[in-house]
Amino acid sequence: MEVLGIGPLEFLLVVLLALIILGPKEMQNAGKTLGKNLNKLVKSDVWKVFRQTSEKIKYLPNELMREAEMDEHKIAHESRLPAHPKSVPPPGEETLAEPPKIVPPAGVKPPTIENIPTPPLPDEHQHG
């Protein structure tokens, strides 16, 4: 486990050197002073801003991917829309477009008027 790039053996070496240089009494005072200053730092507004910024940076790749995905969906949706919508004539005006032609499948002859059977007319004298 490394903290700030310092492993457990390096940390032990730093503590031993501080104990030798400062002595046991000064080491206790230095620890108290360091603890008070760290407590002030953690409770300060600067630390809150630092934490918020680090959280934003931590999740920045996810946000960028989400935004890129939204942009891709938007571009895909826009490409499916027609470039020029069909114009609708004003009310009262008719278009002069030809009606669609119905083409029978290959090999099938369209019916002629002679081939279409006519239904019998209802008899006016028979009422039941």
Q: Which descriptors would you attach to this protein?
A:
single chain, 128 residues, mainly alpha, 2 helices, 56% helix
Short description:
The chain is mainly α. It is built from 2 helices and no strands.
How would you describe this structure to a colleague?
56% of the residues lie in helices and 0% in strands. The chain has 128 residues and is mostly helical. The protein is rod-shaped, with a radius of gyration of 43 Å.
Report the portion of residues in β strands: under 5%
Biggest β-sheet, characterized? Answer: none
Q: Assembly type of the shown chains?
A: single chain
The Rg value, from CA coordinates, equals 43 Å
Question: How many strand units?
Answer: 0
Low-pLDDT segments = none
What is the overall shape? rod-shaped
Structural class: mainly alpha
Tell me roughly what share of residues is in helical segments.
55-70%
Overall average residue pLDDT: 77
Write the layout of secondary structure elements.
Elements: H1 8-43, H2 45-80
